[in-house]
């Protein structure tokens, strides 16, 4: 069967690519061939990642919209700060970004729409419909010449063309040597918390189901044990594999000497209310009230007994650094509800002045050049863009976003993987000292 021809000329394709960056476009759906029904559109375009709709009318206008978030018929309002409408009929293309604070799409089973405002193939017909709204600011005349009759409607998958050169100057400097690995290990072994009353820094890991919290502990434990381990339960189930609050001390090699930090693992976050880790539980964890191996109940948050509630936890029992663990591939796909949960969590953590770091896991799966060689992590423009996206999405500085690769299918340790993981752990310990210095500078400086 011959491939379906695109109606875009080469010049028009270049104009679209100028709006989108360094991308390639592959045709998913052509209404005149596949049908104008919403079901035809969803059959070919759902779960395809970023897409761009290109519509044509009899007045010669070529217009449409871009979204970086999958179509999934979720019934949710989709926030997508990268979404825009466009028209490329004459000269410089017209580009209309989604208005701040407005949703970009309503992700239902109907035809493609932008902001629940501009509908393509409206009611399964070759027409475009503007129902007005606040998501995008445009006029029918400018966008499509007020001609609502479509002669064609196409949808293209938008794939980033990743360009990484080892000759390119890295955007972060890091040494990929055995000597650097040993230097990081020695620093961590010999680290002592800035506060004399604290023997081990407590680091809390928070993140959605399947992001890699438990795998991060297993990976750090593997480095110090000298071989790949799997002490914490991890996996890719649809719901959280971790059901308890676990505090994992890490021991150093054969001597089993405890290292000066504890990684605290939690149940994964889920977007539904009454599922996954409850926000009230996080508050109790931060303040040191929840004991090790406490089993979470998503429908009933932890309640400390009266005796414990009457006395504040010691600094030793509290959390000293919080780490958000997020799958690099899913940063753009986070739902509004999950983002609301994370915003609530961040507000609690900010109120306690606890430092926060974001770990971007599975960077090798996100970028083929990084998959080929982890040393390309800080030379990859795509990973850099994801770091910036994570920074904006979570509201943390770019310097607090660290890409890592956990051990998942490997049987032996790998130098580059170890260096990324140890660099991240080093930053967590530094941030914990910033916390100690901030809450009690007198004791901290007196050490």
From TrEMBL:
GO molecular function, one term: GTP binding
Domain TLDc: 2-159
One family name in Pfam for this protein: MMR_HSR1
One record GO biological process: immune response
Domain of life: Eukaryota
Protein name in UniProt: Interferon-induced protein 44-like isoform X2
Organism expressing this protein natively: Cyprinus carpio (Common carp)
